[in-house]
Amino acid sequence: MTSNSNETKTILIVGGGLGGLALAQLLQQELSSSIKIIVFERDAGEDVRDQGYFITLHHMGIDVLKRISTVEDAFSHPSTISYSQYQLKVADKSMKTTLEWTSSELKVIDRAILRRSLLKNIDVQWNKRFVSYTILDDGVEVHFEDGSTAHGTLLVGCDGAKSLVRTQLIPDLQRNYAGVVNVAGTVEQNEELLNIKQLISNSLVQVLGDEGHGLFLISTGRFWFWSLSWPNKNRTDADIS
């Protein structure tokens, strides 16, 4: 694959999730004079599918996103929970602290709000389901389910855990099941939960059982997010796909 170093490069990104959009924003901001960025997303539009609940960002992720000007809207949104620093304590069954440390900045952000901020000023081609790519002498050609194609200098696969781009590039790579089942949900604030909130303030409380069971609960204002996990080594790939 060859290209003229003086011509504008076209970067094709398959996958319009948080990772693909953040990459597009950074490339566009820092290399806008020499490259063109196009994102291809299989969804028919921005709001056709639920984007999940909140995402927790530690200082490394926050530092990267701070370089993207459009993300400030998400950082300052009323639903975003921000900590200048946070402390982690591990206690045994008698509530004796066995381990503790303090770390730097942390933010808990609504995924849909963060994605909306990352979509700003980005060329996103909706309803584009990736099928395959072909390496050419002057770049790469991407083929989509609707019969259309796109030509670019470089293809980046940001299409998730079941990436079709990765499957074509490394067909023998297999996912390994971690042996843990996780179920999560939300519950609306009530009097009992309000009493709990007064006890734990803005803390996230996580409970770990002897046999690998886990539970955590965190308030995000009107709702509480909960997650329950347990070991299950008998699950097959077909069960989780």
Topology of this protein?
Blueprint (H helix, E strand, L loop, with lengths): L8 E6 L3 H14 L3 E6 L13 E5 H7 L6 H4 L5 E3 L2 E6 L5 E7 L2 E5 H9 L4 E2 L4 E7 L2 E6 L4 E4 L1 E4 L6 H6 L10 E9 L2 H10 L4 E4 L5 E6 L3 E9 L5 H4 L1
Parallel strand pairs: 1-2, 1-12, 2-8
Antiparallel strand pairs: 3-7, 4-7, 5-6, 9-10, 10-11, 13-16, 14-15, 15-16
GO molecular function: FAD binding; monooxygenase activity
Protein name: FAD-binding domain-containing protein
Pfam family, one: FAD_binding_3
Please supply descriptive tags for the structure shown above.
7 helices, single chain, globular, alpha+beta, 241 residues
Structure commentary:
With 241 residues, the chain is of the alpha+beta class. It has two domains: 123 residues, FAD/NAD(P)-binding domain (3-Layer(bba) Sandwich), CATH 3.50.50; 64 residues, no CATH class. It is 22% helix and 37% strand. It contains seven helices and 16 strands. Strand 10 and strand 11 form a beta hairpin. The chain is globular and about 65 Å long. The mean pLDDT is 88. It comes from Rotaria socialis. InterPro entries: FAD-bd, FAD/NAD-bd_sf.
